[in-house]
Write a structure and sequence with these properties.
Strands 1-2-4-5 form a four-stranded mixed sheet. A three-stranded antiparallel sheet has the order 3-7-6. Strands 8-9 form a two-stranded parallel sheet. It contains 15 helices and nine strands. The chain has two domains: 152 residues, DNA mismatch repair MutH/Restriction endonuclease, type II (ECO RV Endonuclease, Chain A); 130 residues, no CATH class. Helix 7 crosses helix 8. Strand 4 and strand 5 form a beta hairpin. It is an alpha/beta fold.
Length: 334
């Protein structure tokens, strides 16, 4: 079957479904999807083509017709938007080459439309598994924005797909926002705890570990007291990556209990004293933390053995009235 023939079938399919929906709206997505199958059977004359009424529950697309596939979408709302499949397409039917969406809109004036999958995917929802979002008759597609065709994107390995998705998501971030996910490979999967923990309730060892990680990623903390929002990245990192809420992030570095942990004598620069106390933890964090985190927060990839040196350079740029490289990590083997 040629592509033009199949698209003619889709035209007839949408017309028939629209007629039926306007007489009596379809009651559920399952009823609608099976009706799509019923009508397809009458429109396809090739006896070799069989319509499967019991596909795998996660099969993509929903209906396979030889090298053509139909992803069925249904809504009771009066719009043409819907969440679609995972960007990973784990259960993609390998025999399907051309994918179309048949969308049943039951809200407002019921209508059914179809469109090629590539043209109607408009966005990626970054839930725990990034999923496409589609819209019929959208002005531009996601793949146009990412400057890659769907056909090329769909055959990429997962880590390369995620690079495209990350760049797309990062371009949409507002000032002060961060991506909560950074992984590019399945084996790097990071699970955020469902229950948010309070920083004040953590053990001392975990507090020190998290404070060291946050200090390393966020050299802006050494800036002067008049610099606004210098602790925002610290709070965002702890919450989005560890599920830990630090309601007063500045207290992680400026509170007397932190700055004087190893020396009870008051005075001096508290941020300097707080960082001196966790130098060993920061060195360990530099050796073990994922490179993607440094790309996210520093905007560059840095080898583990050079991260402390690079942190000192970044800290020196941010500090006023003192120079971190002259007082920190002086007696440490980096």
């Amino acid at each position: 079957m040629k592509k033009k023939e199949f698209e003619d079938i889709l035209n007839k399919l949408a017309q028939q479904l629209t007629y039926e929906a306007q007489k009596n709206v379809f009651s559920s997505s399952k009823v609608f999807e099976n009706r799509v199958r019923d009508i397809l059977k009458t429109l396809i004359t090739d006896s070799k083509v069989e319509i499967d009424y019991n596909p795998h529950p996660y099969a993509f697309p929903d209906i396979a017709v030889g090298e053509y596939g139909i992803e069925v979408k249904f809504t009771e709302k009066d719009n043409w938007r819907s969440v679609a499949n995972s960007v990973f397409e784990t259960f993609r039917n390998k025999e399907v080459v051309f994918i179309y969406v048949v969308f049943g809109k039951m809200g407002g004036l019921p209508e059914v439309k179809w469109q090629s999958y590539q043209e109607c995917v408009i966005h990626v929802r970054t839930s725990h598994v990034p999923r496409f979002e589609l819209e019929i008759d959208a002005k531009s597609s996601l793949f146009e924005q990412m400057k890659i065709s769907y056909d090329d994107f769909s055959v990429l390995p997962i880590e390369k797909k995620m690079r495209y998705i990350r760049e797309y998501a990062k371009a949409r971030l507002k000032e002060g926002e961060r991506l909560w996910w950074i992984e590019e490979k399945p084996e790097q999967e990071h699970t955020l705890p469902i229950q948010v923990r309070l920083y004040t309730e953590l053990s001392q060892s975990e507090k020190r570990k998290l404070r060291a990680e946050a200090s390393l990623l966020c050299p802006k903390i050494v800036a002067g007291s008049r610099v606004k929002n210098k602790y925002n990245d610290v709070a965002m990192y702890l919450l989005t990556y560890h599920g830990v809420l630090a309601s007063q992030a500045r207290d992680l570095f400026s509170a007397g209990s932190v700055a004087m942990a190893s020396d009870s004598i008051r005075g001096g620069l508290y941020i300097h004293r707080a960082l001196s106390d966790i130098e060993d933890e920061m060195i360990n964090a530099a050796k073990t933390m994922e490179d993607a985190l440094f790309v996210e927060y520093w905007k560059e990839s840095v080898p583990p053995n050079k991260r402390i040196k690079r942190w000192l350079e970044l800290a020196d740029r941010n500090a006023t009235g003192w120079k971190p490289s002259e007082v920190l990590f002086l007696n440490k083997k980096l």
